[in-house]
Design brief:
homodimer; alpha/beta; 434 Repressor (Amino-terminal Domain); Rossmann fold; six-stranded parallel β-sheet; about 45% helix; DNA-binding
DNA sequence: GTGAAAGCGCTAACAA
DNA sequence: TTGTTAGCGCTTTCAC
């Protein structure tokens, strides 16, 4: 154990235990502040601060001595004090509408899996993740969390349909990164999947396996991701020389329920349908449920391809053929690129590859 | 708008814009600190602090004047400063092994849904939720997050098998609440489900619907929850005057894979099995997969009852009959009771009711 | 390369 | 009921 300096000047103790700080330390082996470390190392607070932050100013030997002291005494720097002084929280907020209202749910399983990815991506960067629950019509959350100094920025998984909200955030100068596509006339960080390719390869696979009447069961019609997936679907059909039948296209809202009702509509419009590309795994589950309730078989009568490759697609009783999004990578990039933006102002927009995972529904 | 006092004393401005704080405020309508508010209201910082914290000391009229001023200027109190001063973070850490390693996953879907519940429960109490990713063999996380002042306590969803870790936390005096059962000789907060009843009503339902050979497919054998569910299973069997056949009991680890292998073992031991009570929905999915792969039908040949009532039980292609745990309520109580413990030291142990949800697998 | 001191924005004991 | 003042533990000029 490091020898304590005996000739140190007496320092006033503010604790109420009737003994000075050094005695307390020795009793409890508890070192609470950099000042305690400073005393043990016979240096000033500033030197400890520099050593602990790997400042280039500091002497190699001093740094190591202080760091090993800190390790020995199991010292943890006080976050609030550091954050106050630096005017940074070293914390990111994870915003998802599904955090709000009720709770995390299968409807937003995608957001949940992403939360894990972001959390993993953040750790090596020394940032923490705070859950920011947002009520659907609340517009003050950003200001609230940012101006109170609780977070330095936000990871958003809200729909790109919420253009108004996104524009507001941009105008307010709020640092954030969006899971979704960039907008042509405003510049902010994004990470998205390659939805055109996703739609294309799903459809190509269905064509390749001999399907004649391939439906498109989309997410919300005004969502850009959905438009891209639809575009990929059309591309595949055109490349195969097929006719684009508008009756083959219906929209839902990603929910299980909407999967059921949209599938019903689709089958009413096109009774001879023999395949469908669905925009989410959860909707696909609903679609399959409806198909089977009509006495038709999946995939024999109607093949189904989902989207996202959530774990429930894999674990479903009838494992779902789907388009996989690389969620862990997406989370990692969301974390890294937002921090980069906060620190340097560099705006990044990345588009991640997708892949087809063949299981039992197509 | 509130009229600005013109006779206020000049105060030094520390910003670099060449104008004093009041001018800045008027320009940008941005009020950053309680001192800004104090100036506008012609009172001292302490008064503002008291007013904003609803101190009983303060005059009703003063309080309202200050609060409306704060609202008007969209003022948010600085969290790091407040936390530093109060030596509290007003933040709880959500600890789950599934947060670590890879990411949140269906294997720990239960923990995920709980996260939502805790988050919802926390909001009205003015606390935030921080995601604390824990590596399986890391033992420093608690000290790390607590002593750095980032959280005031932890919500744990780790298995009760980790007795050693829990004991360590107790010995270190770490404030936490556990999703699970209390331990006889140490006192800490817990919230758990009524596992005996869960096991009993699941089994009773299977008996009532005419099943003769009812298997028990458990989670980890040494987990107390599993023991209780098994006890409930035995109770139901005994009440019905049935013989307890040890060959009907096998164990897994809650995972999908273990559901498959455990079901295989069970069928090898008891080929005439016609029902099984499974300790988790995810395992039940695995069990059903194996049953069907043997050419048997669910529920005709073998009835299956799961546990938890996760959304994937509801959305499964063959919706699962299961024992529902009230996850939102559990989250709410975990939040409330931990905060109560932190603030008052009161230890609570609550046991939540469960209910049978009948769907298609039994 | 290191130390002294001011300041981050807030709370709370004490004084008035 | 309100104001004054001294911290909370850290970072960061500015001197040495």
């Amino acid at each position: 154990m490091t020898k304590l300096p005996l000739d140190k000047p007496l320092s006033i103790s503010y604790n109420a235990t009737g003994c000075n700080d050094q005695e307390r330390m020795m009793m409890a082996k508890t070192v609470q502040t950099i000042e305690d470390i400073a005393r043990l190392a016979n240096v000033s607070k500033s030197t400890v601060s520099r050593a602990l932050n790997d400042s280039p100013l500091i002497n190699q030997e001093t740094r190591e001595r202080i760091q090993s002291l800190a390790r020995e005494y199991n010292f943890r720097i006080n976050a609030p004090a550091r954050n106050l002084s630096m005017r940074q929280s070293h914390t990111l907020g994870f915003v998802s509408y599904a955090c709000s209202g009720k709770n995390f749910s299968a409807e937003n399983m995608f957001g949940l899996e992403l939360l894990g990815g972001v959390s993993d991506g953040l750790r090596p960067l020394g940032y923490d993740l705070l859950v920011v629950p947002v009520e659907p019509h609340d517009t003050t959350w950003a200001h609230q969390y940012l101006n109170s100094g609780r977070v330095d920025g936000f990871v958003l998984t809200i729909s790109t349909r919420k253009q108004k909200m996104i524009n507001e955030l941009v105008n307010m100068g709020i640092p954030f990164i969006l899971w979704g596509f960039p907008q042509p006339n405003s510049s902010f960080c994004t990470v998205c999947g390659d939805d055109v390719t996703g739609g294309r390869i799903a459809t190509e696979y269905l064509i390749r396996t001999g399907r004649q009447h391939i439906g498109f069961l989309g997410g919300p019609m005004d969502e850009i991701e959905v438009k891209y997936r639809h575009h990929g679907y059309e591309l595949a059909l055109q490349n195969a020389g097929r006719y684009l039948d508008p009756d083959l296209v219906v929209y839902g809202d990603y929910s299980h329920t909407s999967g059921i009702t949209a599938m019903k509509r689709l089958l009413e419009q096109k009774p001879d349908l023999d395949a469908v590309f669905v925009n989410s795994d959860v909707m696909a589950l609903g679609a399959i449920q409806y198909i089977q309730s009509c006495g038709k078989r999946v995939p024999e009568d109607i093949a189904v391809v989902g989207y996202d490759d959530l774990l429930l697609a894999r674990y479903n009783n009838l494992p779902i053929t789907t388009i996989r999004q690389n969620i862990p990578l997406a989370g990692k990039l969301l974390a890294e690129n937002l921090i980069q933006y906060i620190q340097t102002g560099v705006v990044t927009n990345v588009n991640l590859p997708v892949e087809l995972v063949i299981r039992k529904t197509a």
